[in-house]
Amino acid sequence: MDREQVIQGQRVSSEDIAMIVKWLADFPDWDRTRLSRELCTVWNWHNGAGRLKDMACRTLLLKLEARGQIRLPPRRTPSVNGLRNRSSAEVAHDRSPLECPLERLRPLRVEPVEGLAERALFQFLLQRHHYLGHRNCVGENVKYLAWDRANRPMACLLFGAAAWKVHARDAWIGWEPVVRERSLFLLANQARFLILPWVRVPHLSSHLLNRSAARLSADWRNKYGHPIWLVETFVERDRFEGTCYRAAGWLPAGPTTGRTRNNKGAGPVAPVKEVYLKPLRPDWKRRLAS
Question: Which of 56, 43, 10 is CA-nearest to residue 181?
């Protein structure tokens, strides 16, 4: 390899590849976890909370193997992600129809998902009721469940890592590739937003978008040690109008090209979506560019 690669936001040189290949030859007893953690330590690759970026490094190693640059040792146990991605078992929850003004349900709670029971409920609701379903989250993410005053679940919101490249978003921000590579971790992507099908409450969607945006940066900092300055989401044009996003102050930045993050070809393979962006503080542009 003659030049650096950028994988998972990490610059990987030919010397790095040679070091990994040597480790694989010299330490045949190392499993993938040990290899990932050793590499994180050498690179001093930590998240803002000081924890090794082990999962990002494992994905990086898998991408290097897919490119034919290394050969990883066989898995010793089933993939954890594979186990997590299995269909969730039924989780008991209140399905009482909610059709009333928003004021009658207040105070609402919009809180990060914590504990095994809430994680199981969150996973089940998205798998069962969201049109895209839900698999395991990879990388940094924050999940929210919304509850009404009677402690009935109303909605799920999932925020994860921002897309690596989005032409409409990047043009709207106006940053150069080198700045994007350096600052992308300060963006988040709203990957899922689900109002449960038996909940029909006017203005609820925009209310929850505002509530989650108001606390997202603080929750992200608490979990990962760094804030979020800008949030993106992608709305399918043929399926949704994006009304709730505009009502909540999200700004349309333009359409996607119809290509997915794994699409290496020239033609579109996915529905065209409108890109919406939500700055989380007034000086977001200066912060992202600094």
Answer: 10
Domain residue ranges of the chain, discontinuous segments joined by +: 5-77, 98-289
Beta bridge partners of 255: 274
C-alpha atoms less than 13 angstroms from C-alpha of 132 in its C-beta half-sphere: 14
The residues pairing with 155 across neighbouring beta strands, listed in sequence order, are 146, 195
CA distance linking residue 273 with residue 275, whole number of Å: 6
Q: DSSP letters along 16-42, please?
A: HHHHHHHHHHH-TT--HHHHHHHHHHH
Distance CA 256, CA 253 (A): 9
Range 32-54 average pLDDT: 89
According to DSSP, the residues that pair with 12 across neighbouring strands are: 5
Query: 80-102 burial, b for 16+ CB within 10 Å, e for fewer?
Result: eeeeeeeebeebeeeeeebeeee
Query: pLDDT band at 85, cuts 50/70/90?
Result: very low
pLDDT in tens, 237-265: 889 999 999 999 999 999 998 765 544 55
| The CATH homologous superfamily of the domain defined by 98-289 | Gcn5-related N-acetyltransferase (GNAT) (3.40.630.30)
pTM of structure: 0.76
pLDDT at 79: 56
Beta bridge mates, 147: 109, 153
